[in-house]
Amino acid sequence: MGKPVNPPSGGEIENINLKDALEERYLAYALSTIMHRALPDARDGLKPVHRRILHAMRLLRLDPKSAPKKCARIVGDVMGQFHPHGDQSIYDALVRMAQDFAQRYPLADGQGNFGNIDGDNAAAMRYTEARMTEVARLLLEGIDENAVDFRETYDQTNEEPVVLPAAFPNLLANGSQGIAVGMATSIPPHNAAELCDAALHLIAKPNATSEQLMQFVPGPDLPTGGIIVDTPAAMAETYRTGRGSFRVRARWAKEDLGRGNWQIVVTEIPYSVPKSRLIEKIAELLQEKKLPLLADVRDESAEDIRVVLEPRAKTVDPIILMESLFKLTELESRIPMNVNVLAGGKVPKVLSLAECLREWLDHRREVLIRRSGFRLAAIDRRLEILGGLLIVYLDLDRVIKIIREEDEPKVELMRVFQLTEVQANAILDTRLRSLRKLEEMELKREQKNLQDEKAKIEELLGSEKVQWKTISAEIKEVRKTFGPETALGRRRTSFAEAPDTSDIDFAEAMIEREPITVIVSQKGWIRAMKGHQADLSGVQFKGDDALKVSFFAETTSKIVVVADNGRFFTLEASKLPGGRGFGDPIRLMVDLEEGADFIAAFPYRAGGKLLVAATDGRGFVVPTDEITANTRKGKQILNLDAPAKMVVCTEAEGDHVAIIGENRKLLVFPAKQVPEMTRGKGVRLQRYKDGGVSDAKVFKLKEGLTWKDTAGRTWTVAKEDLRDWMGDRTEAGRLPPKGFPKSNRFGE
Question: In which domain, by residue range, is 664 found?
């Protein structure tokens, strides 16, 4: 191997810190992306690629009234002359400009397959043709009249406009989407006539706020229609800051099929949601049984959208069905708004509604002044020529003589008649046939008209008031073209309040309601059998396990499981394992600490009360509304001091509490002596020398105290016979009546 080559010594090597080099290059890349690719200009609402496409179409003379040309030709011109990027990205931009479901006011009029709302792609550019629309023509209006600056193209052989004159409020009317480096933009489309009204108001009252302009622009107007269900206050905040989002829902109607049957027909879907993806998602949820209220979804769309949703049964509430779909599918979607644009074509900035319109109006004024100046210069040139020609008509014979006899007629004409060179050239270029008498009258009339026009333009350039008046007249013309009575200008998106669904339990609505019997075993295994089954003699258990408790519930119920560490856990009945096997251990469904065990399970009922008590004799009454928890950790209700454990959790319906200790002492006292709490240690219910609580129950005194003995017989002690056991909370109590079970439990 040869020796390693040392880098050449000398002055051409420069040491640069890697961090600085990276920062500098990344910043250059970021700025180029922000400026030349991703963010639209606030004045014409276009990104460079769209501006270049429109400019190329103008050079190809693809006016709204001319015949369209192949898109491949347009894309080729754009790429070859102005936009040195891939042809596919240019064609994609052109396709989007022609899609009436993507652009509120399409800028290209396409012929051929330009894709559809299902998300299918357009045909290849060799098959499709395009020309400009009236909107595009308005954006370019006056570009030949020095209305805007031009700059050199990437290869310095041509020129392209820096911005378009934009006689149409394109930024907000068509919206824009773009992701740059470190910033993004997302502007939903709006109604052009409304924007024109707001702009006119802004001309009349330059200090108007975005909120005041909302009387003209109530919200976006999306190409695909739909209903916006945001509150006006939320939308006002979005327009004031330039950041926020809009909740858009599909438009639907209930269609009667006779005999009480019905179906829902969706006719408009949210903006930028491909219809096929939306239907696939609904079908997927149907298969996963996550939409129990829905039986089927069909796409019956032709030219218009028509998605049919069939309910599971005619008793289903259509609003709940739709609300569940809005929750789970893209039938409701959020349209983001982040008006991050190049203000003045230079600085990325988030603009409010008023600032957007102000940028457009200021640009329109500049365009007006530049076009007027251009026209003034043209008038001056023509008036100079006319002045010379009219001099000629006064002495035609002498002019002809000079032209015929002089070697240098131009110099002689300028000397004799004191003409400028421009005038002398115009005279020498005049045709003989123009020397009729009639022509002189024409010239005088033209001179008079031009002088009148010049005076008007000078007045315009001299007065800001006249300028704004002219701009107002132009905006009114645009408003007329795209007014609410035109097919293109009519508002498509409407506003509504979303129905109040706070009282609908969606978890319940999303599950088919069926009766079940919940079975919990001694060892803490749980399962749900279909139907309400009273006879459980045939139910099998694993090994030496046995039945602990069973109760009736519904698939929509919540099941509360209580552990002896004072924690309450909530299980969804619809998620319990079926009754075919032995079920699953509850421990797998919740996070239960080591050494703790389950002591009770029951269906949750709102508005009830429970008596909870620990072995140390403490307890309280807790409302059932406080015990449910949506997490695996559950909810700590009864706080315990070790080694106490929770032993009682029973319904607190009644006016007296009966409590029995392990020392076989029974005490009955009024229920109102037990406080109601949401969590805590509670108060002492009964006093013991040794041992603790065995069981407790709440009962109505007038009905007497009942219990079940080991043989399953029910015993009742009447009110008057309970006198000996009646007392107050914290007393010790005395031995129970004859017949009380040895287990010290009430057994119910």
Answer: 507-725
